[in-house]
Amino acid sequence: MGFSTDAIHAGQPPEPTTGSVTVPIYQTSTYVYPELGRHTGFDYARSINPTRLALERCLAALEGGSHAYAYASGMAAIDAVMNLLDHGDHVISTSNLYGGTFRLFEHVLKRHGLEFTYADTAEPGALEKALQPKTRLVYVETPTNPVLSVTDLKQVADICKKRSIISVVDNTFMSPYFQKPLALGIDVVVHSTTKYINGHSDSIGGCAVTGRADLAERLAFVQNSAGAILSPFDSWLVLRGLKTLALRMQCHDRSGRAVADFLKAHAKVDKVYYPGLPDHPQHALAKRQMSGFGGMVSFTLADYDAAKRMLDRLKLCALAESLGGVETLICHPASMTHASVPAAERRRLGIVDGMVRISVGVEDVEDILADLEQALQAA
């Protein structure tokens, strides 16, 4: 089936009792056993829930995996994946990644005995140079948050397979509509379903998808044991959002390109980060690896004061955390999404105080551009 067909139907047959075309919200904590020693396939809602199961089957289909697991947040999904490892194992991570992921790695998982090395995985040779005898997992964000560098996923997968290292990709920025890491040989894909997957800024969630039975078995065990599951209502919301994912991503992509071109030509803007621009360092790779460039654009102004003046003047674009909603969301990474990253490290990564990140929504693009123009005049 095609992507849009799967997004609407995969894992979601009509409800057998009534014929409902929408998967019901099974708001229950437990299920009756027909007799001792036999249940219906559902025993306890932390372990399994029909609404969550429908979502997980749909997500697996869209990413081209065999198993998917839905969690209470994107961070819970990443934490579950890290539970594939043992004390003393070494992880190589993309150096420029979401501040919350950096915080989890540095201030939570290190205390439990995992070791981390941060490398610019978009740079050829950087991953192999960072390898250690104890390396057991490589974690990649691509495009990265917020400087939008792009890593060659097939190359990562090949390096990892040769050494029996687990490869993991955060695919939140692209969604499975524009990028399919599993098809390139990656072992596990994670998403914050809060973002493009749901797309309506009304649910917090995450997921992990894999095509490997051994990893799926462990992820299922951790999901049930730790219990950081997605609720039935949130599962229903994400299922609803998925039905329009293709339509939304097409619009995000069209408008994202228009916003990037507008900012590139603007006198107040110093630099624009967007894989769809021909001068992006990995533009050719992005064209080969992704089927679109998406709606995430970052740009820099002269300094913090210029960014503040611009952001405080916005009328349509919402100054807020998060991304991937139908509304245009804009943020200041250094003080918002990446505040947990030390200032010196932020500067080294290019996350300067004058940087602004925009998640281009699906409003009329002319209105988005007009709001940016009037706000930029204050910069």
Layout of secondary structure:
Blueprint: H1 3-9, H2 50-63, E1 67-71, H3 74-82, E2 90-94, H4 99-109, E3 115-119, H5 126-130, E4 135-141, H6 153-162, E5 166-170, H7 175-178, E6 188-192, E7 206-210, H8 213-226, H9 232-242, H10 245-264, E8 271-273, H11 283-289, E9 296-300, H12 304-312, E10 318-319, E11 329-331, H13 343-349, E12 355-359, H14 365-376
Parallel strand pairs: 2-3, 2-4, 4-5, 5-6, 10-11
Antiparallel strand pairs: 1-7, 6-7, 8-9, 9-12, 11-12
Helix pairs in contact: 1-2, 2-9, 3-4
Notes on the protein architecture:
With 379 residues, the chain is α/β, with parallel strands linked by helices. The protein folds into 2 domains: 3-242, Aspartate Aminotransferase, domain 2, CATH 3.40.640.10; 246-376, Aspartate Aminotransferase, domain 1 (Alpha-Beta Complex). The protein has helices spanning 3-9, 50-63, 74-82, 99-109, 126-130, 153-162, 175-178, 213-226, 232-242, 245-264, 283-289, 304-312, 343-349, 365-376; strands spanning 67-71, 90-94, 115-119, 135-141, 166-170, 188-192, 206-210, 271-273, 296-300, 318-319, 329-331, 355-359. The strands form 2 sheets. A 7-stranded mixed sheet has the order 1-7-6-5-4-2-3, with helices on both faces. Helix 1 runs antiparallel to helix 2 (50-63), helix 2 packs parallel to helix 9 (232-242) and helix 3 (74-82) packs across helix 4 (99-109). It is globular and about 75 Å long. The termini are far apart. The mean pLDDT is 97.
